[in-house]
Amino acid sequence: MNEGFDWNAVGEALPLLLQGFKVTLLATLLGTVVAAVLGLAIAVAGRAPSRFVTVPVRVVMEFIRSTPLLIQLVGAAAVFSSVEPLTIGVVVLGIHYATYTSEVYRAGIDGVPKGQWEACRALSMSPRRTWQAVILPQAVRNVLPALGNYAILMFKETPFLAVITVQEMVFEARAYGADHFVYTEVFTLAGVLFLVASYPTSLLMRKLEKRLGH
Amino acid sequence: MSDFFSAFMDDLPQLRSGLWVTLEATVLGALLALALSFVLGLMSISRLLLSRGVSRVVVEFFRGTSLYVQLFWFYYAMPPLTGYELSPLLCGVLAFGLNYGAYGAEVVRGAINSVPRAQYEAAVALNMTPLHRMRRVILPQAWVQMLPSLTNLLIQLLKCTPLLWLISAADLMTAVEKLRSRTGETLTAYVTLLVCYFVLAYALTLLMNLLERSAKRRLGLETGGRSLLRSRSGVTAAAAGGAR
User: What CATH number does the domain containing B165 carry?
Assistant: First the structure.
């Protein structure tokens, strides 16, 4: 079985994998948007004055965060079998990561000086206006690098989507590998593509983080 | 629903052995990851450029390529390339250990760097050997810093074990999947599975909290009993172990 590395197969599989890579990027992008928006909503809900809101929010979040993404994906795809896989993938990925990003936002909101809240009260601003005009603009700026980190993490977990037949990069790699029996080449190629995409991004995030003084 | 649970009772032996495989993969993977974290983490603060470089390359490599790809590489790509065939469980342990070891190395490095500089200087002034210094002064303090992040990584590792199902290891997910296809109770099956994982994750968190408390006690830091039941915080996952 030891036939060495088949470069022809790499050349042939590359266009297919790049095709899948577009889906990978799309899923990451949409998932990040869902996670960023929903995470913010959870963080704000977690600061609600009533315990009837905050306690259930915490319990659900803890549950989602402590259970495997793969099962959530497979389960959601099986229950909502009529929905398109990519949509399910993006929503489940987004919800899963929202439980993490909400903690990031929470830290960001905690980082806004207490005097800002007091000033808003003194000016008798409505809660809505307080969040919108004063708290969030200050909080969100500080959390951007951390959100970027989660986007990179999510990017590396997109292969999970292949399990629910989203045709992203690893799905294509597996399909090509199964057809031509060249698993070594396609999985090595997929790994290299991941590395090439994620390493520069994480370098960039680190730079951004340093500039914002974290 | 009751169908599912009667089938659940019938399948208990398989479920138990599945749970065992999942735990085995988690514990062995975590041990490998812990060992690697220390080796790579200590290498990355070494004075030798070569050792720093090697550690950097290994860490970036295993963090940059997806865990999923690594697992499949060990399972599908390694046999034709090298002639060695690994058992699915071993593939899992290797992939989990290497991947989380790379993340853990950053945790170890960060924690050691966070020990105040004066502690090094005091240890040097007391004429301790480098090994003694590390073992008696630096590591006990760094260990307390590391534990919360390591707990997060451990739970993330546990959460990756259903991947074993894809490479046909007979883990917990495999056992429940079989049950599901036999009874057709999709929602119940997956919710049960999620609850199992949640219980496992919480149990591991409690164990790690105990470990953290004993580590703190060794430094003379007292912690209240309430902190033992505390769940993990998401922020440390991002700050220390998560991405970057």
Answer: 1.10.3720.10
Enumerate the residues of chain B whose CB falls inside 8 A of the CB of residue A32. none
Q: Do A1 and B79 touch (CB under 8 A)?
A: yes
Q: Which residue has the tokens 């977690």?
A: A46
Query: How confident is the model at residue A1, as a pLDDT?
Result: 43
What's the CA gap between A70 and B94, in Å, rounded?
19
> What span, in angstroms and rounded, lies between the C-alpha atoms of B90 and B73?
13
Contacts (Cβ under 8 Å, ≥6 apart) of B203: none
The total domain count for chain B is 1
Q: Which domains does chain A have, with CATH numbers?
A: 8-211 (1.10.3720.10)
- And the tokens for A40? 């913010």
Residue A106 contacts B, CB cutoff 8 Å:
yes
Q: Is B243 within the bounds of a domain?
A: no
The CA distance from A208 to the nearest CA of chain B, in Å, is 11
Question: Could you tell me if A97 lies within 8 Å of chain B, comparing CB atoms?
Answer: no
Residue B183 lies in a domain: yes
Q: For B61, phi and psi rounded to 5 degrees?
A: -65, -50
Residues of A in contact with B19 (CB under 8 A): none
Chain segment A15-32, per-residue pLDDT in tens: 889 988 999 999 999 999
ipTM of the complex, rounded to two decimals: 0.85
Residue from the list B61, B80, B194 with its beta carbon closest to the beta carbon of A71? B194
pTM for this entry: 0.88
Structure-token match 């810093």, residue found: B145
Structural domain containing residue B116: 1-222
Asked if residue B146 belongs to a domain, the reply is yes
Closest Cα to residue A169, out of A133, A139, A194? A194
